[in-house]
Amino acid sequence: MAYIVIMISLITPAKAQTQLAEHLRSRRLAVGLTQVGLAARSGVSLATLRKFERTGIASIEVLLKLLAVVGGLDEVIEAARPAETEFSSIDEVIKGGIRPKRKTGWRS
User: Fold this and answer.
1) Which residue among 24, 53, 80, 106 is the one 20 to 30 A from 40 at the CA level?
2) What CATH number did the domain enclosing 62 receive?
3) Domain of residue 30, residue span
4) 46 is a domain residue
5) Is the residue at 51 inside a domain?
């Protein structure tokens, strides 16, 4: 019997956008940058940065440019790394014949 692991997130994409914007703003303030300073250092227009901090809407490129300046780019890249799997194909699953570990306990 093979087990399939499904990753389910309880956060909506809209909520994730809002949280990303809040976290990035907090990082900006923590490193002592103004919106003007971050826009200049990252190459992102001031209007785009303001819109992102207000709405959470931005392209991946913009988000990555901002994270490169305030920190967090490496963590985002690492978070996107695929999880290692025990099997590389369905044939390995069938051949492997992994059985669930037997539970042991007291007998009455």
Assistant:
1) 80
2) 1.10.260.40
3) 13-83
4) yes
5) yes
Handedness of CA 29, 31, 32, 34 (dihedral sign): negative
Cβ atoms within 10 Å of 71's Cβ, excluding its own: 13
Classify residue 105: in a domain, yes or no: no
The string of DSSP letters for 38-97 reads HHHHHT--HHHHHHHHHH----HHHHHHHHHHHS-HHHHHHHTSPPP-S-SSHHHHHHH-
Total domain count, the chain: 1
Asked whether 50 and 62 are in contact (CB, 8 A), the reply is no
Residue 41 has pLDDT above 60, yes or no: yes
Q: What is the pTM of this model?
A: 0.71
Give the residue among 76, 47, 74 at the shortest CA–CA distance from 60. Answer: 76
CA-CA-CA-CA torsion for 11, 13, 17, 19, nearest 10 degrees? Answer: 0
Tokens of 13: 């994409």
More confident residue, 76 or 4: 76
Mean pLDDT (whole number) for 68-90: 87
> Average pLDDT, whole number, for the chain?
86
